[in-house]
Amino acid sequence: MLQKAYPLIGRTLIAPHTHSFSIDCPDMAALARPGQFVHVRLPGFLLRRPISVCQITQDGLRIVVEERGAGTEEMARLGSGDLIDLLGPLGNGFLTEAPHRRAVLVGGGIGTPPLLPLAEHYHKAEVFLGFRSADRAILTEDFEAAGATVTLATEDGSAGHHGYVTEPLEQHLARHGADVLYACGPEPMLKAVQALAAKYHVTAYLSLEARMACGVGACLGCAVPILTAEGVVYRHVCKDGPVFPAEEVVL
Ligand SMILES: Cc1cc2nc3c(=O)[nH]c(=O)nc-3n(C[C@H](O)[C@H](O)[C@H](O)COP(=O)(O)OP(=O)(O)OC[C@H]3O[C@@H](n4cnc5c(N)ncnc54)[C@H](O)[C@@H]3O)c2cc1C
Ligand code: FES
Which domains does the chain have, with CATH numbers? Predict the structure, then answer.
C-alpha cells in the first residue's frame, strides 16, 4: 500500500458532473488489481473519499468520479498538473478466472468504472450497463474497445433497452448462461443480480459501497452484515471487500 501525492495528467468530462482523471502513478498501478480502490485526500477535508480503479496501465491509473457532494465537487476542480493525494491500492478486488471463461459484467451508473479492468481481463465479456438516461451513459466505448459486447439499458428509454439493466441480463442468462458474473451499482440492482445469479446457478461477486472513514479496517465506519457458516457477522467493506461472493451478501 502506498500513500503519495501524484500528478494528474488529464481530466475529461464524460457525462454531466462525471469526470475521468488520468493519474501518473506507475508504482501504485503496478500493485493495483481489478476491483480495488484508491482513497483520495482533498485539501480542507479530514476524511478521504474512496474511488474505484477504472483502468490500470504501466504509466498509472484512471479513475472516474461523479460529483455527489462537497468532496467529489472539490475533486472535479482538479486539473492537469495538479497533485492528488492517494492512499492505495485498497480492498480485496475481484477474483478472476481464466480469460476464456464466459464472464458477464453488470454495472449501474457510477458503479460501472471498476468493471472495465475485468473486461480487459476477459477477452469477450458480455457487459450490461444501466443508466438513468442516454446522457448519463459512461464508458460504453471503452468496454467495446476492450473486446466486450455491450447491452445498454436506460430507465427513460432514451438509449438501448427501456427499463432496468437486469431485464436484458435475465434474458441473456436464460438463453446462454454464464461461468461467472460480476456486478457493481445501486443496492436494488445488486439485489436483483444476486437473485438472478441464484436462479441461474452462476458464481457471482458483488462490489459494495459503504460510507468510509479510515479505509484500512481500523474503524467501524464501513461494516456490513455478511452471511457465513457461523451465521451473520459484520465485515469491513474497505478491507474484507468491497467485493464479496453474492451468496454471502445480506441486502
Ligand atoms: C469502494 C468504493 C468505491 C467507489 N468508487 C467510486 C467511483 O469509482 N466513482 C465515484 O464517483 N464514486 C465512487 N464511490 C462513491 C464515492 O466514494 C462517494 O460518492 C464520495 O465519497 C462522496 O463524497 P462527497 O464528499 O462528494 O459527498 P458527501 O458530501 O460525503 O455525500 C454526498 C451524498 O452522497 C452520499 N454518499 C456519500 N458517500 C457515499 C457512499 N460511499 N455510498 C453511498 N452514498 C454515499 C451521501 O449520503 C450524500 O447523500 C465509491 C465508494 C466506495 C465505497
Ligand atoms: S472505513 Fe474504517 S474500517 Fe472501513
Answer: 2-90 (2.40.30.10), 94-207 (3.40.50.80)
